[in-house]
Amino acid sequence: MAQWIHMSQMIQCLPDETLNNLYPPTAFPIEVRHFLAEWIESQRWDDFVLENVEHQSKAQTLLDQTISMLQSIAQQNANVVDRMKLMNISRNMVGELCNICPRIIFRFNPGSLKCFNRTVSRTQVPNPTQYQQYPNRESSFPNMQDVDHLVLKVLEVQDIRQKMHQLQEELNWESRLKVWRWEQHKAAIGQPFDDNLNPLQTWCEQLLGVNGKLRQELMLIGEPIPELQERLGQLLQVLIQSSLVVDKQPPQVIKTQSKFSTTVRYLLGEKVAPGKPVVLKAQIINELQARSLGSVPGDNVGELINNTAILEHNTASKSTCATFRNMSIKKIKRADRKGSESVTEEKFAILFSTEITITGCDTPYRIQMISLPVVVIVHGSQDNNALATIIWDCAFSEPDRVPFMVPERVPWGMMYKTLNSKFTAEVQTHHNLDHYNQHFLAQKIFDKPDFADDFSNMMVSWAQFNKEVLPGRPFTFWQWFEGVMELTKKHLKTYWSEGLIFGFIGKQHLHLILKDRPNGTFLLRFSDSEIGGITIAYVSATENGGQKIQNIQPFTKRDLEIRSLGDRIRDINHITYLYPDFPKHEVFKRFYSASPVGGYIPVSLHTKVGT
Predict the structure, then answer these.
(1) What is the CATH topology of the domain spanning 414-591?
(2) Band of the pLDDT at 146, cuts 50, 70, 90?
């Protein structure tokens, strides 16, 4: 029965038509082979010789036993469907008695399975449909190989095909690696990213093992199957190539002459053939060269210092990496710019390449991988605009894009999610921008201060983001937003995280929420008139007994380095309640500086609001 168990597992990959050809339902149904497997495999089929007339009676006896056993199994079967099926088969076999006898002998005969490994290399695999061509006569069988032998041979090839298909599907590993790289790309705008490559490395090593076993099985079959061999070779090449990963990306904004580092990891490191060390080379390429990675880069567009590293295996971490330390860009050659395009909009990448030999493979493989896009600057003043290019690229590029294509316009909803993600990641807070902040930011970038409807589906352009200055201001939207982000990160993180700062709010909305509040009520808002400022808006009395909203001159990074926001709030007596009605000394007390000790008379700077 063990033989049938083996065969039944393998025939799962056969189409119904092939199964019907091997086990014709009208002559020898597969159910007979299944239900009588143990009895069939216990018979001495090798003793039968069809040409011997004396053996015909023995064959007849076995056929009678077969029919009898089928009827017995049918009667004992609790499943009414199986019972009726088996009874019908036994009746058909009685009717086809004279034709079935030779088929039984050749289909039951398991003897040749014992020598399968010896004969498989010299046996030609017939097309299963050829079985229909043999007449139902004794004389057609003397030169025919055992049918079970042939079935197993066909199934062996089918099994390899199925395993190859599974291997190809499992190269979704490549898809998962692409997902890992994609999430690594998105990490630049604050998206969550798990940088652990160990599970992918394990999967990669297992796939290499499966590929090797399949290639061995193909060799055992004997007959060359070029289609399968070629496909396995292609899958192997994809696996070896895709296993090169930029583990630690270089900075995406790089200033010439400034040192930086990056790490490349090879996921098949433990399978690298011993011998000569593997040396990786790094070179900087432009966007056009990145689009033709299959060819050798032409002109050298930049000079990289310390641009080689040896692939080294770390036994403790089981990782194989090449770390480029103290690398720097000595000079860069820029492409001709189009129209108003600035140097901070030009994207480059670092190309890592080497030649590697894997144990068990005859030939070395040329492999390469590029970094995420980088912007090269020559002065610190270009950093902000270069970062804007990277933010737009990371946020709005598509997977598997042509390097380094990005859309010119995106929906505001996508833009807002990017701003919120970047803000919370940079400030390292869980306190998100709220819908009031979102609406004001949209009013700001679209220059629609009176627009009260939903902005989500309105399209915002790259020019609106960081090329065109805001109306009446000398800076772009991104420059203004990035300044607020930097101020909050360095001086206002705790205030923001605890919800003490209202944040982005327009003056119209400000008047709306403060107009009915008592005098002295205040809130903290980011300045919209200068980069990196926070101001206090508060309700004060007018000379005729009315109310008005006042805005104190914004505090910048330099101001808050001199005196903290908490101390400045304590200094100003005009403000008493944080909106809507929290006493300021209860809310901000823990931010007040303690009185100095040591016997000296304290001296301090105080904030005074002019009248």
Answers:
(1) SHC Adaptor Protein (3.30.505)
(2) low
Q: Evaluate whether 328 touches 305 at the Cβ level (below 8 Å).
A: yes
Contact call for residues 526 and 534 (beta carbons, < 8 A): yes
- Per the prediction, the chain carries an average pLDDT of 83
Q: What is the 3-state secondary structure (H, E, C) of 469-508?
A: ECCCCCCEHHHHHHHHHHHHHHHHHHHHHCCCCCECCCHH
Q: Span 323-336, mean pLDDT?
A: 93
Q: What are phi and psi of 500, to 5 degrees?
A: -85, -15
Q: Residue 507: what pLDDT?
A: 84
Fold entry, domain 171-383: Immunoglobulin-like (2.60.40)
Encoding tokens for residue 245?
């990963």
404 prior amide bond cis, ω within 30: yes
Fold: same for 171-383 and 414-591: no
What is the sign of the dihedral through the CA atoms of 8, 13, 17 and 21? negative
Q: Is-contact 517 580, C-beta < 8 A?
A: yes
Q: What pTM value is reported for the model?
A: 0.72
Residues whose CB is less than 8 angstroms from the CB of residue 191 and which lie 6 or more positions away in sequence, other chains included: 183, 421
Q: What does the chain come to in residues?
A: 611
Answer yes or no: is pLDDT of 162 > 80.
Answer: no
CATH class of 2-161: mainly alpha
Under 8 Å between Cβ of 269 and 320: yes
Q: Look up residue 48 and give its two tokens.
A: 């039968």
Residue pair 496/526 in contact (Cβ under 8 Å)? The answer is no
Which residues, including other chains, have CB under 8 Å from residue 33's CB and lie 6 or more apart? 4, 23, 40, 107
Mean pLDDT value of segment 507-532: 93
Assess contact for 382 and 340: CB atoms under 8 A.
no
What pairs with residue 352 in β-bridges? 282, 369
With beta carbons less than 8 A apart as the criterion, state whether 93 and 100 touch: yes
pLDDT of residue 601: 66
pLDDT score for 522? 97
Cβ atoms of residues 428 and 489 within 8 Å? yes
pLDDT-derived band at 602, boundaries 50, 70, 90: low
Q: Whole-angstrom Cα distance, residue 399 to residue 182? A: 7
- pLDDT of 181 above 90: yes
Task: Show me where the domains of the chain are located.
Answer: 2-161, 171-383, 414-591
- In a 13 Å sphere around the CA of 592, the CA atoms on its Cβ side amount to 14
